[in-house]
Amino acid sequence: MSQDDQKRLAGRAAMRYVEDGMIVGVGTGSTVAHFIDALAERRADIEGAVSSSEQSSRLLKERGIPLLDLNAAGEIPLYVDGADECDGHKCLIKGGGAALTREKIVAAAARKFVCIIDPAKRVDVLGRFPLPVEVIPMARSYVAREIVKRGGQPVWRDGVVTDNGNWILDVHGLRITAPIELERDLNQIAGVVTVGLFAQRPADVVLVGAEEMR
Length: 214
Ligand code: 5RP
Prior knowledge:
isomerase, Ribose5P_isomerase_typA_subgr, Ribose-5-phosphate isomerase A, EC 5.3.1.6, Ribose5P_isomerase_type_A
């Protein structure tokens, strides 16, 4: 089974959490694209979707799913999103698609966060995937120096501008054994907008796309 088939199975499995009349928070990425395809089949049953990125907003619009503003929607019952890595405590690394800030906001506003992944995303310890950190552009070098002091090797994702007009540093060389503490620490560096660690608010449910889901 290909990795894309595994992503499709995970995306479709998340539909069991979608209830009639719901507002659904929608993440970003290729796994989420499969979820959006499945959600489109039930678009008449839901109130609409709160999107976490311009990319997902485009897909949702193309599939006729009403887009809702988070400020009007308030707390949302369900958020479905992918991840770049997931540990045994459902803590995640996210932001491979540079959408981490809006993803973290929608996840925070959601009662239930269902994470959809293929098996390659499962790890014992987070950090093999470089940790994305969104920064205010003028703070890039300062934040990078602070990260080096903490043992990371930041690499500027050159040419990428986030939906919020900011830049991304991908931090290599971390072995993240205390994700909640690291998230809190990196969040305190001036100029950091969002750390791609989802540990203070981990996923509630992780669905791993696999053959037996067929
Ligand atoms: C985007 C993300 C994605 O959820 C993450 O990169 C996983 O993507 P994919 O489903 O394409 O493997 O965090 O910012």
